[in-house]
Write a structure and sequence with these properties.
The protein is mostly helical and 261 residues long. It has one domain. It is built from 13 helices and no strands. Helix 2 runs parallel beside helix 10 and helix 4 runs parallel beside helix 8. The longest helix is centred in the N-terminal third of the chain and has 32 residues. The structure holds zinc ion (2 copies). One zinc ion binds next to helix 11.
Length: 261
């Protein structure tokens, strides 16, 4: 009901107060996803301690890292609401009607474009003049789910402005953008989970997907694995960690070391 009211208010001619309502709803949705994903991974990590990736390191900086979440989440909500608002106001490309071919096509293109965007923005942030905006995130050498929002406003803006810009270059229906953002929020936390729960052959060569080990190695070794969902750009550019595939494989048939609760 609230959602329909918001949508109704978002016709061309909507004002700043309508945008603020949208912004508030997006913040609320991000917090719900954050809480749900956190409960899931806290449970899984406790249940499967053998799946910890960096066995000898600990991270007890939960609250220190969470202190940056309000800034990070505000930027994510602002840029994402901005994209939706521009499309709903008719300022961006007219989205395609949702059909059997337009849904997988625009969703797939958006996912591939975001991964390319993320890889190259991330490489840019590792460039010496820009690194000061990213250095803080890397003080977390052994990431946890709480590290996902441990970022500066500048890096959040660089990463997330994709969601404002995409509606101007791809006629993607807005529900698909919402689905992509939900996936993005969950997969961002998965990448920082610190435990490999979903190792599978799909996450290693010749398949393009990346698992938790992928971004964990970025934090642990610093100069490898800059991508997000796919390992393709890292493989193409020679920045994939040399032991990535073997490490994923080592988790695939791991037996639990503790009895199930
Ligand atoms: Zn980095
Ligand atoms: Zn990270």
């Amino acid at each position: 009901m609230i959602f329909e009211n918001v949508l109704g208010a978002m016709n061309p001619g909507a004002g700043i107060s309508d945008f603020l309502v949208l912004f508030g709803l997006v913040v609320a949705a991000i917090l719900v996803i954050l809480a749900g994903t956190a409960v899931f991974f806290e449970y899984m990590n406790r249940r499967h301690p053998e799946r910890k990736i960096q066995k000898t390191r600990v991270n007890d900086r939960k609250w220190r890292e969470l202190a940056y979440a309000p800034g990070s989440i505000s930027v994510i909500a602002l840029t994402f609401s901005g994209g939706l608002f521009c499309q709903w106001q008719g300022w961006a490309l007219t989205p395609l009607p949702m059909t059997w071919w337009s849904v997988p096509l625009t969703f797939g293109v958006s996912m591939v474009l975001y991964d390319a965007w993320f890889y190259w923005v991330h490489r840019l942030l590792h460039w010496t003049p820009m690194y000061r905006f990213h250095a803080q995130h890397h003080t977390s050498v052994c990431p946890t789910i709480w590290t996902n929002h441990y970022e500066t406003i500048v890096e959040a803006l660089l990463n997330q402005s994709f969601y404002t810009l995409i509606v101007f270059i791809l006629p993607i229906p807005w529900p698909l953008l919402v689905a992509q953002k939900i996936y993005d929020q969950i997969s961002g936390m998965l990448g920082h989970a610190g435990y490999e729960h979903f190792a599978s052959p799909m996450a290693r060569t010749p398949w393009p997907l990346a698992s938790t080990v992928f971004h964990d190695q970025h934090h642990g070794f610093f100069r490898y694995n800059y991508g997000h969902t796919f390992s393709v750009w890292d493989r193409l550019m020679g920045t994939i960690h040399p032991k990535y595939d073997d490490t994923v494989k080592s988790f695939e048939h791991m037996k639990p070391t503790v009895a199930a609760e």
